[in-house]
Amino acid sequence: MTLGLGAAVLAGAAALAFGWGTSAPAQTVLMPSDPDVVALGQAVYVENCASCHGANLDGQPNWRSPGPDGRLPAPPHDETGHTWHHDGDTLFQLTKYGTGALIGDPDYQSNMPIYEGVLTDEEIIAVLSYIKSTWPQDIRDHHDALANRQ
Q1: How far apart are CA 126 and CA 40, in angstroms?
Q2: What average pLDDT does range 24-28 have in this prediction?
Q3: What is the pLDDT of residues 43-102, one digit of tens each?
Q4: What are the CA-CA distances from residue 77 to residues 80, 83, 89, 123, 130 (Å)?
Q5: Which of 60, 79, 134, 141 to pair with 87, CA 20 to 30 A apart?
Q6: Do 92 and 25 form a contact (C-beta atoms < 8 A)?
Q7: Nearest 5 degrees, angle CA 22-CA 45-CA 96?
Q8: What is the pLDDT of residue 17?
Q9: Taking CA 94 as the corner, what is the angle to CA 133 and CA 51, rounded to the nearest 5 degrees?
Q10: Residues with Cβ < 8 Å from 122, sequence gap 6 or more?
Q11: Within 10 A of 58 (CB to CB), how many other CB atoms are there?
Q12: Vertex 75, ends 52 and 50: CA angle to 5°?
């Protein structure tokens, strides 16, 4: 089941790369070096994300295996997780519209809330910028390279 989910997420990411239409910014630019953006992002993260993804971005235990409800636990957003493997646009889409929209399956069940109408685009970008600001430099460089491929 986990392999199927991974394939579905990759398919969704590919759909995004080829022009899935939304109101997202043309190219999501994260600002992990901007202290004001990072401070806003940290505050929004604490209020909206830390209860599941952890105050230290360490996620929930056994995040790679579905729980009793069949849903995957919240992954870490630190360097031990997979967040940094996805470009900023994908992370933005996932946060704003949810996994189901990302993978093209409106029936997909996830514990991850959809933040469209809850957080502004600027708040979502700030949260993602905060998360990225915590990664080691080599991972930040890798993530920058993802954005530069587009």
Answers
A1: 6
A2: 64
A3: 999 999 999 999 999 999 999 999 999 999 999 999 999 999 999 999 999 999 999 999
A4: 7, 6, 16, 17, 10
A5: 60
A6: yes
A7: 10
A8: 38
A9: 65
A10: 40
A11: 16
A12: 25
